[in-house]
Amino acid sequence: MNNPIIKLIDVTKRFADNLVLKGISLEVNAGEVVCIIGGSGSGKSTLLRCIDFLEHYDSGEVLVQGRMIGYGADPHGNFIRLPERVVQQDLANVVMVFQQFNLWPHKTVLENVMAPLRLVAGMDRAQARDKALAVLGKVGMAHKADAYPATLSGGQQQRVAIARALGREPKIMLFDEPTSALDPELVGEVLKVMRALADEGMTMVVVTHEMGFAAQVADKVVFLANGLIEEQGPPSALFGAPQSPLLQSFLATWTERNGGVTGA
Amino acid sequence: MFDMTVVLDYRGALLHGLWMTAWISALAIVLGLVIGVLAAIARVSSHRLWRALAAVYISALRGTPLLVQLAVIFFMLPLIGVQLPALLAAIIALALNSGASQAEILRGGFATLPPGQTEAAWDIGYTRWQVLRYVQLPQVLRATIPALVNETIDIIKNSSLVSTIAVTELMRVAHTYSSTTYRPIEFFLAAGLLYLLLTLTVSQAGRYLERRLRHA
Ligand SMILES: Nc1ncnc2c1ncn2[C@@H]1O[C@H](COP(=O)(O)OP(=O)(O)OP(=O)(O)O)[C@@H](O)[C@H]1O
Ligand SMILES: [Mg+2]
């Protein structure tokens, strides 16, 4: 029996009277790459953000490495919100990479990567610097260590953001449309880094519109529609023989706009 | 009959007044910044009580004249048994007054920060305090330097009001000697020039700081 490293059980989330996730159950095994696809507003980001508790789900369970995220029982057995530090501890192996990079603009590339190593991992300056330069090297950005984010292209910024995440030595990386804010010619360099991570066995959950990436790299593709998992399976099945009419029309629209699924 | 040289005989007293004005203002602005940061945070806190307290504090101190605030602290607190020396009362009143203005300035600064930066910091393991200290405040302070410099200049000018409770700062000195020498024009002009010197220094320092902190 392999235990899934991430497990969602009947997760729901509402914003005011808008029920955005209507009961999501999903398993991700260690080392797997799971791509989440679906139309705008279908709940992809919300689902991803529930995993690392950037959104607080309303019911169901999110389990990461067997631990329930965000909620627990007090000594009397009552269901409670866990303190933030506990939540962060439970999520120590999970990091998110955002569509808008979210680098800190007042810090250089090196400082962006070093700061969490100093403040969270407690490394001394020299250790943090070595580690930061190593992860920056890994994404091909060591030569820009002293640049400020604003002077970099979107693709470069996203690679720095990935390096910052890698500094925390995560076991699980969540990507929310990491290439959607990029000019088309810059998408490739980021996908290449992500592919390399996948090859190294990183567990990845990726919300993406890059169907080529999903087709080639994903172990499993999840199609979300109206807050529910409409269909999931290996990419060959989802892209080759979609069952759900919603997925069929989603893919048809996508193909119309972009050409075949095998590109990228 | 106008003769600026008379003030030269009193330059020691005037410079002492200038020095008092400078450090009273400096203390008020720094304390005000601390109060302002706390009030700005309370203003957007998730606790209703904190939000309400901060809102009341800010509107009360921004909506009443400094002279009234000085009077309340200096003359009314003794009625409930709190006796403050004039100098301390002056600094407290100026700091509270400036804290309310700085809270509003900083709140504007916080509002312009993209929430994603904070989210990324929390996600990567920063505590709330670290997010504030290392992500938000450096950027907010940088973005609000021009407004904070203006606030400092306001405080320097407003500090002249503490002369009313017998604190011997620049205005008080000018006032005293203008009556003993019957040379009000010369002394108030001298005081004005010294205030101008102080405020120009502050605005130049602000500009320098802004330039230093601006990057590509
Ligand atoms: N913080 C929020 N407050 C209120 N409503 C929200 C919030 N975040 C998301 N929603 C709503 O939840 C629904 C799902 O949003 P979500 O961002 O998860 O969609 P998505 O699948 O990621 O879409 P996209 O492809 O456009 O990024 C949308 O109707 C959205 O308006
Ligand atoms: Mg989204």
TrEMBL record, chain A:
Its membrane topology: Peripheral membrane protein
Sequence intervals crossing the membrane: none
Places the protein is found: Cell inner membrane
Gene3D superfamilies in UniProt: P-loop containing nucleotide triphosphate hydrolases
Keywords, alphabetical: Amino-acid transport, ATP-binding, Cell inner membrane, Cell membrane, Membrane, Nucleotide-binding, Transport
Family matches, as Pfam families: ABC_tran
Record's keyword annotation contains Nucleotide-binding: yes
Signal sequence extent: none
Residue stretches making up the ABC transporter domain: 6-251
GO molecular function: ATP binding
Entry keyword Nucleotide-binding: yes
Main location: membrane
InterPro entries attached to this UniProt entry: AAA+_ATPase, ABC_ATPase_HisP-typ, ABC_transporter-like_ATP-bd, ABC_transporter-like_CS, MetN_ABC_transporter-like, P-loop_NTPase
Family of this protein: Belongs to the ABC transporter superfamily.
Protein name (record): Polar amino acid transport system ATP-binding protein
Organism: Pseudomonas cuatrocienegasensis
TrEMBL record, chain B:
Entry keyword annotation includes rRNA-binding: no
Subcellular location: Cell inner membrane; Cell membrane
Name this protein carries in UniProt: Polar amino acid transport system permease protein
Classification via PROSITE patterns: ABC_TM1
Record-annotated ABC transmembrane type-1 domain positions: 18-206
UniProt entry tagged with the keyword DNA damage: no
PANTHER family, per database record: GLUTAMINE TRANSPORT SYSTEM PERMEASE PROTEIN GLNP, MEMBRANE COMPONENT OF AMINO ACID ABC TRANSPORTER
Upper lineage: Bacteria, Pseudomonadati, Pseudomonadota, Gammaproteobacteria, Pseudomonadales
Membrane topology designation: Multi-pass membrane protein
Keywords assigned: Amino-acid transport, Cell membrane, Membrane, Transmembrane, Transmembrane helix, Transport
Bilayer-spanning residue ranges: 20-45, 66-96, 187-209
Family membership: Belongs to the binding-protein-dependent transport system permease family. HisMQ subfamily.
